[in-house]
Amino acid sequence: MRKNEQGYSLVTTLLVITIFFLLGLTIVTAAVQHAQFTTVRVDDVQSLHEAKTELNEALADLKAQLSAPNFFVDHRIFTPNQWDQFLGTDSPSARENTIAGRLTARYGVTMTDESEQYNIPKDQVFLRALRLSKQFTDGHQVRTVERLIFVTNTPSFLKYALGSNKDVVLNGGVYVEKGNVYAGQDAYASNATNYVKQNGQLTVASPNAGMPRLSSSSVWYTSDGQLMACGQTTSCWTASQTRFSMSGSWTPLWPTDVVEPAPSTKQENEDFIDVDFDLTVADKLLQASDISRTSDSYLEDIQRVQEATDKANALRYLAVELSNRWTPIVIDSTVPIEKAIKQSSKEKPLYLDGSGVLTGDVDIRTDAANKVNQWLIVNGDLTLNGPTNSNHFINVYGNFIVFGNMTITGNVKLDASIYVMGKTKIYQSRVERAESGKGVVLLSKGTLDLSRINEFDNPSPTPNLKGYFYTDSSATIYAVGSYLYIEGGLFARGNGATAPDADVEGLVVNAFRGQVNGIMGSRGNSRRSTIRSPHA
Fold first, then answer.
1. Considering only Cβ atoms within 10 Å of each terminal Cβ, which end of the chain, N or C, has fewer?
2. Nearest-10 crossing angle of helices 311-322, 296-307
3. What is the 3 state secondary structure string of 257-285?
4. Residues linked to residue 276 through DSSP beta bridges, in sequence order
5. In which band, very low, low, confident or very high, does the pLDDT at 25 lie, cut at 50, 70 and 90?
6. CA-derived radius of gyration, the chain
7. Burial 293-313 (b: 16+ CB within 10 A, else e)
8. DSSP 8-class letter at 536
9. CA angle 391, 395, 397 (to 5 degrees)
């Protein structure tokens, strides 16, 4: 009996040992499998992170290449077909010397063109929809990370109702009804009443002009997301004989004793696409002269302007060289310039060697039925002097390059692109779109000065400045004693010169919302002033 009990004990002991061995083996196996699974997941996460990093690096590389100064000229890209060849999207397999080939070789990133899916006409514009993709391994599966980007050479200033690459200062009752405001450096807002009397005296008045106001859908984009404000009226500014200067009363806090709400502000993170004003004018001169962008002479002339120390002088020299391709306008004291233009053939650009004043209708079109504008190149100053009666306008059709200063006064309806190498001044004026509805795009190399728009007239919901106004320099707007309603946009790039009558570089707007009693010198009419800038 004892031997049997010893046998059972041995069997039981062996069975227990076997069970514990199996349990231990199972635990070890599970631990190993879990460790392997963890290792796989770590590898997957790392693969995803590496794929995203390489995709972002490829995108940064692409942006750096396309953002280079004079990119299109340096790479001789002047047609949409040349653009697609350079990108490498014109064939199924990207060549090494293309952007797509470069991104594949460096980062393993594939670039495909999806422009057609977004109804982008590839034979007409440089806008492209590009998809960047990078594959990585997730366990036993191959996955892909992607980024869809839109590439365009459209200037960024067209995106904003008001703005500057430098500072933006809004004094008084500015109202942005639609569109955003952009300040590449600092942004300022105050309820100060700054204006210039009829005798030329710069004045900071005591009335509260109201704080600037943006609609609920509008945003003020700044370099750091901050907005400096001053609600102390006369304490915000001081005036000398030559300029308005900021005082020390500005803080990053919106005043608590004003009725206007603080505008929405954000930091602008998108890259700004700038304008090369001089090369743009050179391109327009050559195109007007019917010189192909793919010709050697075009490239030589563009490069000569690009490399010139004095680009303005280089452009004048280019205009003189090309003038034998244009129709000269011959005028004297007995022939108004608009009559000479009317009598001239419009098959070639018109050329005025000197200054001129237009006081009547002007039609510079090769085909009025198809509304194809011709060019007028003015080697001097140009003034558009319309009637002051609110029911009468002069109508101007055509495109202009002005090598001197430009002045617009009175009521003018425009269907035009205007490039001004000097300064531009618009005063006592109402600018509207001509019958074709195209309106005006005015670009000025020098400062832009707008004042006394609809001065002391009754306010109207009808826009009195319709179009896009750009200066390569700085700009000042006076809408105290005026009702200024911009439909389009106004942008001051800033190139070193301060805004007219101000100590800042960029855009300065002076407006007033409320009753004005006797603060305008000899013109003491009560007046409500504002700026409403819906971005068309």
1. N
2. 150
3. CCCCCCCCEEECCCCCCCCCHHHHHHHHH
4. none
5. low
6. 33
7. beeeebeebbeebbebeebbe
8. -
9. 160
